[in-house]
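Students often ask why inverse folding is considered easier than folding. One informal answer: many sequences map to the same fold, so there is more than one right answer. In these notes we will look at a single instance of the problem. The structure comes first.
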């Protein structure tokens, strides 16, 4: 009985000693508290700047060289335009104009006039190119060549219906066209344009008639070349 009483009396002393032997938590670090209701802290998402690649920096000497080249190209184009200016009244000394679809041929001893005996195509294709022996050789600038054209021709409307087969009428027609062609180093200063050969407003739309064209004369009334506007 006395031993039991002594054991009970020593129990508080043993508990105090056990608590004293435990190591205290580090300073500034709170003791771990287990609480299943508290979610663990979320991992912060990376900032958008982390995926942005830095833009390459162009070295200053490269920028200076580009500016120098651009300035030289502008000077060359300006000088070229000045060399072209004296030929504005007769650009056929600089350019060759031909027709490549209907079959027009240059008229002898006439500048800017083309002839065709007959055609059924209804279209023509103009081809403009720099002459190989041009006195104002183009190499740097960009230009827009404007053409004012007139086409004179005879239209024959022939009836093909059974009620009037063989009957026909002839009309003298003239059509006018304005065409612009872009010439630059990228297309080697050559360009084409396709346009109607005749005035479709005057051609009969009736299925009972068939039209044909003869005595065609294509005349270039005016040709001008201007420096193309450069888009900034």
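Output (designed amino acids):
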């Amino acid at each position: 009985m006395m031993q039991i009483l002594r054991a009970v009396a020593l129990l508080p002393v043993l508990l105090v000693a056990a608590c004293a032997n435990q190591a205290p938590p580090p300073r500034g670090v709170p003791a771990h508290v287990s609480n299943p209701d508290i979610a663990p802290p979320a991992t912060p998402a990376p900032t958008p700047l982390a995926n942005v690649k830095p833009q390459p920096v162009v070295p200053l000497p490269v920028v200076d060289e580009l500016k120098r080249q651009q300035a030289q190209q502008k000077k060359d184009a300006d000088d070229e335009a000045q060399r072209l200016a004296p030929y504005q009244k007769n650009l056929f000394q600089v350019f060759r104009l031909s027709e490549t679809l209907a079959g027009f041929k240059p008229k002898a001893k006439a500048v800017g006039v083309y002839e065709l005996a007959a055609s059924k195509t209804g279209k023509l294709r103009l081809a403009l190119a720099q002459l190989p022996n041009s006195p104002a050789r183009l190499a740097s600038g960009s230009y827009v060549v404007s053409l004012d054209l007139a086409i004179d021709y005879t239209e024959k409307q022939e009836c093909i219906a059974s009620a009037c087969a063989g009957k026909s009428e002839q009309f003298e027609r003239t059509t006018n066209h304005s065409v612009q062609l872009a010439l630059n180093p990228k297309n080697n200063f050559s360009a084409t344009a396709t346009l109607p050969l005749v005035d479709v407003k005057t051609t009969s739309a009736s299925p009972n008639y068939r039209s044909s064209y003869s005595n065609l004369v294509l005349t270039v009334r005016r040709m001008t070349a201007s420096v193309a506007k450069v888009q900034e």
